[in-house]
Amino acid sequence: MEYVNFIISNPIINITAISWFVTQVLKVIIVLLTERRIDLERFVGAGGMPSSHASTVCTLSVLIGRTLGFSTPEFAVTFIFSLIIMYDAAGVRRAAGQQASVLNKILDNWHSPDNEFTEIELKELLGHTPLQVAIGAIIGAFIGAFAVL
């Protein structure tokens, strides 16, 4: 119970969680507006516009900077990890999604009745474009800068 109280009473954790939540809700709204359909998987799924990874880590970094100072080791650690996470979201995970797309096309064209792999479809929406990461980072920095601690 002590751990639950720590999490609930920590404004940095709470505001960072709110940042993630807001960004995930925005994903659902954007799909609704652009594709005219409700896709609740966007609320929990990775990838898409805007990047909740970028939003979350930028909110955390800004809050740490505001609380402890922007020249502290704690801010430096969160800032560097934020850059790594955003690079991964726009680089490695995006490339994995592109590879999944190619593999799905190969499997779609592999028409062997004995082939057990034709039923598998790999998840393609894993990462983000640089624009999705940038928009997520802006949202996160904004939330971190203006949230009441």
Architecture overview:
With 149 residues, this protein is mainly alpha-helical. The chain has 2 domains: 108 residues, no CATH class; 32 residues, no CATH class. It is built from 7 helices and no strands. The longest helix has 25 residues. The model has no long low-confidence stretch (mean pLDDT 85).
Short overview:
This protein is mostly helical and 149 residues long.
List keywords for this structure.
7 helices; 149 residues; mainly alpha; single chain
What is this structure's SSE topology?
Blueprint: H1 2-9, H2 11-35, H3 41-44, H4 52-68, H5 73-90, H6 92-108, H7 130-146
Helix pairs in contact: 2-4, 2-7, 4-5, 4-7, 5-6
Q: How many H/I helical runs? A: 7
Order of helices and strands: HHHHHHH
Q: Residue-averaged pLDDT, rounded?
A: 85
Quick one: overall form? elongated
